[in-house]
Amino acid sequence: MVLLRGSATAMQKPECELEKNGVVAGLKTKMANGIERSAVQNGAVNGIMANGDTVHQINGLRNGSTTVCNGDMNGHLKIQTEAKKPDATATTQRTLASKFEETFEETPLHIALITYFGFLVLILVGYIKEHLWRWGILKKPGSKESSKLNDFVPLFSDFVNFFGRNIYMRGRDCGHIPVAGVPGAQFDIMEYSTPDYNWTLNLTGNIKRSVNLGSYNYLGFAENSGPRSAQVEVATKTYGSGICSPRRELGNLSIHTELDRLVTRFTGKEDAVTFAMGFATNALNMPSLIGKGCLVVSDKLNHASIVLGTRLSGAVVRIFEHNDMESLEKVLRNAIVDGQPRSHRPWKKILIVVEGIYSMEGSIVRLPEVVALKKKYKCYLYLDEAHSIGAMGHSGRGIVEYFGVNIDDIDVMMGTFSKSFGACGGYLAGSKDLIARIRSKSHSAAYGAPMAPPVVQQVLASMRTIMGEDGTSIGVNRISRLAWNTQYFRYRLREMGFIFYGNQDSPVVPLLIYVPAKVPAFSRMCRKRGLGIVVCVFPATPLVESRARICLSANHTKEMLDKALEIISEVGDLLNCKLSKLPKPVPREWNDQPPLEEE
Amino acid sequence: MNDNMESVLPLLTPEPWSFGELFEAFRQAPMYHLIFEGLLIIFIIRLLLSKSYSIQSKMVLTEKEKDQLIEEWTPEPLVPKLPDDYEPIKYRTVTQQGGSMLTVDGKQGINLGTFNFLGMLGRKETADAAVKSLKKYGVGTCGPRGFYGTMDVHLDFEERIAKFFGMEMGILYSYGFSTVASCIPAYSKRGDIIFCDEGVCFAVQMGLLASRSQIKFFKHNDMEDLERLLEEQVIEDKKNPKKAKKTRKFMVVEGLYTNTGQITPINKLVEFKYKYKVRIFLDESMSFGVLGKTGHGVTEHFGIDVTDIDLISACMENSLGTLGGFCVGSKYVVDHQRLSGLGYCFSASLPPMLASAAMAALDIMEDDPTMASRLQARSEHVHEELAKIAEMKVAGDPVAPIKHLYVRETGDKTRQEIMKLLELIVNMAMDEGVVLTTACYLEEEEAFLPPPSIRVAVNIAPTEDQLAMSLQVIQKVASEVLQNEV
């Protein structure tokens, strides 16, 4: 079935090409910021694809099924390159990068087969084990439901149980790894031991100092000493550590108002409002913007909070392929032409929802093109900058600054404080009317607690540092270090021959492992050598594309990165993970990493 | 000619066929012929059964027509344009909090407005624990629990809170609202049935909505109505036992209802649980630390075994005086949320310093187990005093610290007008040194909108004198405002 679907896609290709070329040409002229798709590069190594497949193809190729079906199995890669015209604002924004380059190398066929086979074995063994447990030949480990509830309908479906017991359980020690201290550039990982193949995990009490490539500490503001920490201490002593009332009743401290104003200035929008949890910012505020009769056009890989928010709002959702502008345009056109389902009434409004950096792919949204489409089809744009705010753009203003897009073109700007700012919570920024409406309609302002005082203070302090309002240049220094680290790390990984995804400027680097059995092994071997790394498998990723995810931080020194790279390289050799067919990058000289400015 | 006719005629007029001959013909016919006829018969049956063939209703539009349609479409603005005289919602600004006093909009007063029931917010112990934790862990964890966002403090707290409740396992969320809103859809899926009280707070309603299950509301705290629904379900199940075998059923209730101040009769619910095979999810956000002799919640209040409750959720913004939320239950039940609780898996974990503060609050609760009974005694006293206001009706269980004050005689006043009166009472009380608040609801979003009220939250921080003074103020101000109005 999968095969059939794949070949159908391949057959339709020429048509798509035609249509897309028309569309893209139309877009090209409309882009205001000088980004133009001047070179569409076909990076196929073996040159089988002669029809000039461009980037939208990448998405098709990545879901594993097409890998098998395209007919060319030599693992070629398609790179799409966008050269930038020199532009006054743009050149300052991207000092290191001059191109918008995203790579999603294709899964090698033999690896795909091994991966499928791996899952097959897992499922078969699991199936046999389930039966042995059922017949009482093996003793079933793990917790059981209370005997009082025997005649109740089982709480979990068989599939959920099966997945948990037979697949997740094997790598259970690779998630929820406890850390004993601040998650800075290096952190203390607590060791687990297990007497019964992960069914029970016991902390051994041993602690291993490791390089931290797992936390979203992009600018290194996860810190337990220094001036910001001192401010937090004062705030805790002044206001206490919590708030016992919703913001609309008696929970609005003066520092909350101060933070709202600071975020307004930081984002450059007319007004902003903050919330205590990033997840809840999306999930509980989207319903105040959209409702029945509205359409949400959402990227396929959008975060769970966005999915939940749209579900709670009652709006209709249509999905477009990840970062695929042609797919987005098609969805928009069809939606407007067809109107609402059944009644065919026109939509009240259409909201496009995209993220700045996709944390599982390391890709960056094609914002200028999204904005162009948004204008063409009179939609509204909701940009979730959870990972990109602080980390992207020359002054940390996020993806909008990175592309030099006009801030007025983004209707709703959302971001979180749990990544670059080393705190937790989220914000929404937009026009005065929009924020006024959210203030009066927001679920979390009416019923949930606002941010805790120490957390507010942490955001105030780190945001001021990024903006340079604390009188230092630490913010700019950290942003430039992060950019340097990103370039360096990605270059070295390419040199080593790993397959990894994403934009060359993205500090999130997903490194492909593919085979399910290698995933926990990768994590364990790295931890053993002193490197903390995140690994994810299905359902967080597509079935074949199990991966390790690396998040870089401004606080990583070159020595730490080199140590981490050495470990990754060693483990990669042991597990045969260096599968890239791309040519080695051109050797280059590395300037010194910008030195870390001390307080 | 005639002869010819006669010789041909017998050939043309068919002789009546006997059954035997029919069978014979059938037997002799070649196989391909039979198959062909069989196919024909199937085709005819299909023709008969299929609806009249549809005329293609979908007209294919040309690109030009599409462009025109797109051109013509005018969307509504993202948010409605606000009228020029619109007054944006202004939050009151608090400049000092914790302890018995609260400074709101520059005026200091005795706090009877926030849910700081046990006065944990403002205790030196909790703040010190938070600061100590800050010096080790910093503020944020920079990751969800699964991805290096688990600190040892989180694990300690989970163990601690489970032990406090006498359950097997606890799970920590980073936000109170999202706790109950995530744990319901983690278990109850499309096709399952939830029996829910009409008085549940908004967070629970969001959980119900996210679960996409079938929701059956019973009247607030009305066990007869619940039993009626359960009985109906039994009849329904008998009709379709196959479906019933796969349909999970839950009762979702709050221990102490934020919206009404009533206590749920949990003993009755446990009875129903085993009688009708319906699991119980209990939200103890308001009752935890408040009800029961030692503050173990509504189960202690009724003296039932806590393990009869399948899942207890609570937020830490009330009795514990910090932020976040947790669930406790058996290991089998709770562990499931580590992969399925949306707010757990996809959100950065709780700042460790807040977990430490909560742990310090638990220490205080365990060191001084009389806190809850003191609070209940005080609540009863406040209830008596508030009941003396002739113009207002006090709602809520006498021992519960949440009291809703409704206007008794509303006449033909609109909700807005009543709200204005209540706001006036709140403002005047604030001038006299008592901080109150009206209960805030999203009027259009609530499933069952409660009537407008002033929500008094009794707490143990103020001294007896302070409390007596503030009750006098409330009585005086309420009478002043409402006497002239009603």
From TrEMBL, chain A:
Catalysed reactions, as listed in the record? L-serine + hexadecanoyl-CoA + H(+) = 3-oxosphinganine + CO2 + CoA
Q: Has the keyword DNA-binding been applied to this entry?
A: no
Q: Which cofactor does it need?
A: pyridoxal 5'-phosphate
Tell me a GO biological process for this protein: ceramide biosynthetic process
Give the matching Gene3D superfamilies: Aspartate Aminotransferase, domain 1 (3.90.1150.10), Type I PLP-dependent aspartate aminotransferase-like (Major domain) (3.40.640.10)
Q: Which GO terms describe its cellular component?
A: endoplasmic reticulum; membrane; serine palmitoyltransferase complex
Q: Which SUPFAM superfamilies match?
A: PLP-dependent transferases
Q: Which InterPro entries match?
A: Aminotrans_II_pyridoxalP_BS, Aminotransferase_I/II_large, AON_synthase_class-II, PyrdxlP-dep_Trfase, PyrdxlP-dep_Trfase_major, PyrdxlP-dep_Trfase_small
Q: Domain Aminotransferase class I/classII large spans what residues?
A: 211-568
Q: Which family does it belong to?
A: Belongs to the class-II pyridoxal-phosphate-dependent aminotransferase family.
Quote any Pfam family the record assigns.
Aminotran_1_2
Q: Would you tell me the protein name for this molecule?
A: serine C-palmitoyltransferase
Keyword terms? Acyltransferase, Endoplasmic reticulum, Lipid metabolism, Membrane, Pyridoxal phosphate, Sphingolipid metabolism, Transferase, Transmembrane, Transmembrane helix
Q: Name the pathway it acts in.
A: Lipid metabolism; sphingolipid metabolism; Sphingolipid metabolism
Which PANTHER family does its entry note? CLASS II AMINOTRANSFERASE/8-AMINO-7-OXONONANOATE SYNTHASE, LD36009P
Zinc keyword on record: no
Q: Where in the cell is it found?
A: Endoplasmic reticulum; Membrane
Q: Which GO terms describe its molecular function?
A: pyridoxal phosphate binding; serine C-palmitoyltransferase activity
E.C. code:
2.3.1.50
Q: Which residues cross the membrane?
A: 109-128
Which domain of life does the protein's organism represent?
Eukaryota
From TrEMBL, chain B:
One Gene Ontology term of the biological-process aspect is: sphingosine biosynthetic process
Recorded hits in SUPFAM superfamilies, A to Z, give: PLP-dependent transferases
Task: Provide the E.C. number(s) assigned to this enzyme.
Answer: 2.3.1.50
List the GO terms this entry assigns under cellular component, sorted alphabetically: endoplasmic reticulum; membrane
Q: Which cofactor does it need?
A: pyridoxal 5'-phosphate
Gene Ontology molecular function, alphabetical? pyridoxal phosphate binding; serine C-palmitoyltransferase activity
In terms of superkingdom, the source organism counts as Eukaryota
Which InterPro entries does its entry note? Aminotransferase_I/II_large, AON_synthase_class-II, PyrdxlP-dep_Trfase, PyrdxlP-dep_Trfase_major, PyrdxlP-dep_Trfase_small
The pathway where this protein functions is:
Lipid metabolism; sphingolipid metabolism; Sphingolipid metabolism
Name the UniProt key words of this record, in alphabetical order: Acyltransferase, Lipid metabolism, Pyridoxal phosphate, Sphingolipid metabolism, Transferase
Per UniProt, residues of the Aminotransferase class I/classII large domain are: 108-469
Family statement drawn from the similarity comment of this UniProt entry: Belongs to the class-II pyridoxal-phosphate-dependent aminotransferase family.
List, alphabetically, the PANTHER family matched. CLASS II AMINOTRANSFERASE/8-AMINO-7-OXONONANOATE SYNTHASE (PTHR13693), SERINE PALMITOYLTRANSFERASE 1 (PTHR13693:SF2)
Q: What is this protein called?
A: Serine palmitoyltransferase 1
